[in-house]
Specification:
alpha+beta, 4 helices, globular, Prophage antirepressor-like protein
């Protein structure tokens, strides 16, 4: 697992079978999307299913290290992240 910082938010990423997957909650927070009430999944419904993947803490424990709560998390591909950025109008540079 790797991390980057964008707009003051840490974004977790991991490579699964050669594809970069990004923690959707982290990406959405960095884009200024409020996920506190409805969670991340409601904001991912418009993305193609090929760009979203649901994982569990038992599959990728490092992704969930130090976090409590829901043992499931949505991940998005780089293309999925690009679509989310287009929707929000906010871009992370570096």
């Amino acid at each position: 697992m790797n991390t980057v910082t964008c707009h003051g938010h840490t974004i977790r990423m991991l490579n699964i079978s050669g594809t970069l997957w990004i923690a959707a909650p982290d990406a959405l927070r960095a884009l200024g999307v409020d996920i506190a009430r409805k969670g991340a999944s409601v904001h991912l419904q418009k993305l193609p299913r090929t760009e979203v993947r649901l994982v569990t803490s038992s599959q990728y424990p490092d992704l969930f290290a130090g976090r409590r709560g829901n043992p499931r998390m949505n991940l998005v591909t780089e293309q999925g992240l690009a679509l989310l950025r287009e929707q929000s109008g906010k871009f992370c540079v570096g």
